[in-house]
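Readers of this paper often ask what the protein records in our data store actually look like. This encoding replaces a full spatial description with a residue-level series of whole-number codes. For reference, a complete record is included directly beneath this paragraph.
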Amino acid sequence: MKLQIVGLTAFLFVFVGSARVQAALDCAVVTTGKNCYTKGEQVGFTITNTNCNLINLRNGGPWIIKDAQGNEVFRPACVTLAITPLAQGGSASFSWDQLNDGTGQVGCNYANQAQVPNGTYQACVEYTNADFTVNDTACASFEIDDDCIDDGVVPTVSGWGLAIIVVALLAGLTIKVRRQHAAGK
């Protein structure tokens, strides 16, 4: 009998304790169009509802750009108050021009915006569950670099090229692969 009471007490503690803690939703993922962008290039990113029946984007600009230290670099200034619902599998896309917040907001614009420096950044999209009681943020990292050659295309090898690589690997040869930039670098 005592064992059953201890079990019941532990069950109540776990049940009551977990009811007070609201964990992250983990309903969505953010992806960027590429891993690396050259300076001035539009950074495209998409949020996709992967795990929940419905999530809501709270306004027309629910996204933030952060630097490698997690500092906010840019947030849209003026946005509509529309709520964008995303059913499971649904997505919404946004883009950023690589300009910072400058010296502050002036109306619906920013004053003295400037190109952000090379580095690692995150595109983050804020969302909430269907009844607006739990908030979460999904992020994707990307690079901005003057010498970026990431074109978003994964190189593939097939046919005779693949056969030659397999034979070379079996023979113990070292293979060096070099990608060239479209501009000839």
